[in-house]
Amino acid sequence: MAELTALESLIEMGFPRGRAEKALALTGNQGIEAAMDWLMEHEDDPDVDEPLAAPLGHILGREPTPSEQGGPEGTGPAAGEGKPILSEEERQEQTFRAREQLAAVRLYVELHRGEEPGGCQDPVQLLSGFPRRAFSEADMERPLQELGLVPSAVLIVAKKCPS
């Protein structure tokens, strides 16, 4: 019999899928026990069934427009707004197997990102929003599961700063 994933196990225990996914994400995919502790601690929260907001980022090669920055000084979204900077056409979503290396994700991003003005393609850095983490070159050889990016994750793509 195949071993169940943490998400499948939580669902089988009777937790709604959305809550189980949220618990796993907010505990850094540290396993069933941590997710169950979070679910028990937050079962009466009024927003427990609200989906997680995607982290804000920007499109490579351009600065956010004033309307995307929001707020009077352009310091980010205006209070109460959670508008993502990327439009539906600009976001990318792809499914990878748990045992695939992070390098496969980076390759996918590099092959599918839009052309930058001048035809120059700067190298990219992959980051996770929660917990905040910048992935190193050594991480590129590790499987997604080992990096805590399973069952699901949102990765932020940023230009790699020259060293």
Automatic annotation (TrEMBL):
PROSITE patterns hit by this protein: UBA, UBX
One GO cellular component, as annotated: nucleus
Domain UBA: 1-42
Residues annotated as transmembrane: none
Predominant location category: cytoplasm
Keywords (A to Z) from UniProt: Coiled coil, Cytoplasm
Pfam families recorded: UBA_7 (PF22562), UBX (PF00789)
Compositional bias (Basic and acidic residues): 86-96
Gene Ontology BP term (one): negative regulation of protein K48-linked deubiquitination
Protein name (record): UBX domain-containing protein 1
SMART domains the record matches: UBA (SM00165), UBX (SM00166)
Taxonomic source organism: Rousettus aegyptiacus (Egyptian fruit bat)
Residue ranges, annotated region (Disordered): 45-96
Listed PANTHER family: UBX DOMAIN-CONTAINING PROTEIN 1 (PTHR46340)
Molecular function via GO: K48-linked polyubiquitin modification-dependent protein binding
Record localization: Cytoplasm
Domain UBX: 86-157
